[in-house]
Specification:
Elements lengths: L2 E8 L5 H15 L5 E9 L5 E8 L2 H11 L1 H6 L11 E12 L7 E9 L4 H15 L5 E11 L21 H4 L2 E8 L2 H9 L1 H11 L2 E10 L1
Antiparallel strand pairs: 1-3, 1-4, 2-3, 2-8, 4-6, 5-7, 5-8, 6-7
Helix pairs in contact: 4-7
Amino acid sequence: MELLVVTLAYTNADRDADILARIRLIVDTVRNAPGLVISQAYRGQGTHAYYLLLTTWDTEESWYQARDRYNPKHLLLSSTTELLTALPEQWLMHYLWGYSRPAAIPTLAGAHLAHVGTGQVEAIQQHWIEQLRQQAVYPTLAFAFLARGIREDRLANNPHFAFSEHKDAGIAPTQQASIFLNLLCWSNESERDEFLANPHYQALHQFVGSRGVVQVLPLEPM
């Protein structure tokens, strides 16, 4: 099963040119990693000083074999500390749902990170996928996916232990996967505004927000 590694870096707005050059270097470095399927990079829209890096690996094993050299979080931390305002966050995830409109070129994006309690995970996952499927009927999205996983640092004591194997150690899936990432991309502002005003989206946003902590990141593809 493919593994999605999600890396979020909060950066110094006064050093944006330097961090942008560093991010591009990291993206170029990771592209050479064996087992990498695709990498994507997004920056905060407007004055938002953060970057979101997404790297998809063909298997968990590929990630564990490559991470000593190609781990985006470690590559960020090897930068001058003046470029970052906090330690980068990193999650390991599996894809749940995806959508692509091939004729549309993504120019705007938004990431929704939802931190959900263990008792709510399965209900939120089912409802989230149902609502996304309904809204994907309308031709406003250019690209989107929903993924679920855990913070990488939860595996710090077991560095060679793939998180999908926790179920064999007596840990239920609802206990080991409490972070959702919903990435949404649009071709233009009017399509984005139409999507966000849709009753399905509004209902979903309220539902997830009432059961977890949701962080919304306005983005633009790099």
